[in-house]
Amino acid sequence: MHTEFEQYLKSQAKLDEDAIKAVICMATHRSLAKNGLLLQSGEICRHKVFILNGMLRSSVITANGSEHILQFSPENTWTLDVESYDKEIPSAVNICAVEPTEVLLWKKADFQNLLSEIPGLKNFSQQLISRNIYYSRQRIATVLGGTPEEKYDDFIRTFPGLMMRLPLRMIASYLGISLKTLTRIRHAQLHHEAK
Amino acid sequence: MHTEFEQYLKSQAKLDEDAIKAVICMATHRSLAKNGLLLQSGEICRHKVFILNGMLRSSVITANGSEHILQFSPENTWTLDVESYDKEIPSAVNICAVEPTEVLLWKKADFQNLLSEIPGLKNFSQQLISRNIYYSRQRIATVLGGTPEEKYDDFIRTFPGLMMRLPLRMIASYLGISLKTLTRIRHAQLHHEAK
After folding, report:
1. Would you give the DSSP letter of residue A165?
2. Does position A6 have pLDDT exceeding 90, yes or no?
3. What is the rounded average pLDDT for all residues in chain B?
4. ipTM score of the complex?
5. Hey, are the CB atoms on B83 and A137 less than 8 Å from each other?
6. What is the distance in angstroms between the Cα of B68 and the nearest Cα belonging to chain A?
7. Which range has the worst mean pLDDT, A24-38, B46-60, B138-152?
8. What is the pLDDT of residue A1?
9. Which of A46, A54, A153, B144 could form a disulfide with A99 if both were Cys (CB 3.0 to 4.6 A apart)?
10. pLDDT in tens, A163-177
11. Which chain A residue lies closest to B83 (C-alpha atoms)?
């Protein structure tokens, strides 16, 4: 049923078949329609989430109603609100489907058991945490320091496949620039390429 | 010699005296003058750093020479460029003293040994990593989403003691706003308080 996820665990986490079976055995499957909410701010984030296909976005909504996107999570990535999950406190984050999306979910207690029983999963999990830290640091530097053009180029380089799947307003929100500025940059680049 | 650091390890990491002795035994002490460089971009970050007193800042310098500050590290905090340290690759970050600063340094191999020998240190180290992740996520949300006034208020709330120790241009660089905007906000608030 989850052949691609099995393949992912085998190639990325180097788990053997028994371990893979144990991990999958504890997961529940869920389908989300486009714009479906997986986590609403105010709720406690109680699951680890793996995206089988589709894409989620994690965002915060400010007091004046504008959305700021922290992260896109396409297929074969993991997501959660880590602070809410660790501390079991209400989340400040919404996690929502950009496209029709299928996910696997693990309850915290179940995932903790898997981590303590499968050393390979624990190692892999720590690698994912490290990557997340490097990425956050890079993202802070880009958001702080880049011109809008640099931010856009950085996005294209980091997520070459996502551009065509996302509405421009979401990319603008992720980059912290206005839709107008993003449209201007795209227009200039398309014009440049057409020459 | 390092009574305050001993106190810190006792109260924050709940280590016993033998463990504290082992941790301190592996450290080397270093003093930095104001503006002294602890890590220059291009070098590999080879040490864990604990700040005994003073303050460091971690920043990236863009191609056009402007500085973007990722982090301030005052006394009783830890710092390093985590990606450079983990992967042993050249760092993109400068770590530099804002004030005359004294630090303790541990070589990576020595700190790894301490982590594997002292379970309490390992737990504490993981707590610090988690806090760092929560903080980075919060910082991305603030930099992306806040008005300059919100960013400034957030800074005052998060680092109540640092305001008076930092030149305004560094605070502006940390917040990703112009010095002119920061000066305007400060002026408006002082004017408001004086009423």
Report:
1. G
2. yes
3. 93
4. 0.85
5. yes
6. 6
7. B138-152
8. 58
9. A54
10. 899 999 999 999 989
11. A134
Residues of A in contact with B62 (CB under 8 A): 145-146
Residue type for B141, please?
Answer: A
| A141/B174 Cα distance (integer angstroms) | 10
Q: Scanning the structure block, which residue is given the tokens 């020459």?
A: A195
Does A66 score more than 90 pLDDT?
no
Find the closest chain A residue to B135 by CA distance: A83
Write out chain A residues lying below 8 Å of B82, CB-based: 130, 133-134, 137
CA distance A98 to chain B (A): 19
Query: What six digits make up the tokens of B30?
Result: 């270093």
Tell me the residue length of chain B. Answer: 195
Place of tokens 């982090």: B71
Question: Exposed/middle/buried for B99, CB within 10 Å: 0-12, 13-18, 19+?
Answer: middle
From A134, A140, A145, residue closest to B82, measured CB to CB: A134
| CA distances, A5 to each of A8, A84, A130, B77, B182 (Å) | 5, 25, 21, 40, 49
